[in-house]
Amino acid sequence: MAFVPFKPTHLRSAPPRLLTFSTHMPFMADVLFCAKYPFTRSARELMAEKKLTLASIGGDAVERAKKRVMGALKEGEIPKFIDMDDVAELELGAYAVSRILLSLVKNRYFINRYAVAESKRASAYLRDDSAENVLRVAGEIGIRGEKENEGYVMPVVDYLLYAPGAKDYKLINKPLRSGAVLLTKREFTRVLEEAVRLGIERALPFSVPEAPGLLTRAADEIRQEGKGLEPKYEAKFEGGDFPPCIASLVERLKMGENLNHTARWALAVFMLNAGVSVDAIVNLYSFAPDFDERITRYQVEHAKARGYKMPTCSWMRSQGIGCEPPCRLSTPLRYKGGKREESPEAAK
After folding, report:
1. Taking the CB of residue 71, how many other CB atoms lie within 10 A of it?
2. pLDDT tens per residue, range 120-175
3. Are 301 and 278 in contact, with CB atoms under 8 Å apart?
4. If 0-12 CB within 10 Å is exposed, 13-18 middle and 19+ buried, where does residue 219 land?
5. Is 182 in the same domain as 318?
6. What is the model's pTM?
7. Which of 10, 24, 250, 256 has the highest CB neighbour number within 10 Å of its CB?
8. How far from 87 is each of 239, 285, 315, CA to CA, in Å?
9. Count of domains observed in the chain
10. Domain span at residue 317?
């Protein structure tokens, strides 16, 4: 019989974990947990206890939520809070109202950038938290896992859903055992970070019928203050547009989608081989919700120095980023809108 390193309590079909509340207020430990991880089931249950309605949201809560959103948009991060129960409750409320404001703004780039900031904040807490809380977070967002020695193990099926796109996280580079992936704590929390990001992105925006003026005004303020934050990029090639596979990557990037490592590399290599400047490529990547100019510039300049050639269309399709239906070209650079001639090596 195959070794299965997961207890029934961590399966998705397991009954929900019951939390203990006092008569008037949850224990401080649960309040702090929910404030650190406001996307969990425990946090939703706690907010349900409070019976929050649109009409009951006050000006302080809206202002705190707006500050949280703008911090994510401008700085790319949401600071940690002071570990006090009253502050923690304010933080939890700010998260709930932030989601409402972003749903009213309805800007995909803003939502994705906010999701990255929330997931990185959660990851920062997880890295320093106990194994019990790390596994509790995992279980409450639908991911199975177990502590083993100094690391963690999780089912391959769960891992493939949320593994980051970086080369180090490809399944072929990970130790496996009977349908499970063995991970360090840093790797496991990185997988949870990705799951949190995707969960927030997919949940927003939601419908907010008959929102009070206090909320709609705050949403309008976010739109106004965020006008200069959304990057702009326009590029055409002489003789036509991008090949469909590249056009798709550009549009996904411009929508604020977090492209995986392979897609980002292929896009940069195409642009470099088509004669686009490093500055223009870096500007394009500024649409990425986790954009870091220093790192991006280094990576693009590194790719240029190495002289990477554009991979074939069949390779692009094998990576899930090719044209559908297939374009039947040897390389995207052969497309009429791109560079018509290439060196023989580029088609290898």
Report:
1. 16
2. 999 999 999 999 999 999 999 999 999 999 999 999 999 999 998 777 888 999 99
3. yes
4. buried
5. no
6. 0.74
7. 256
8. 59, 36, 52
9. 2
10. 244-347
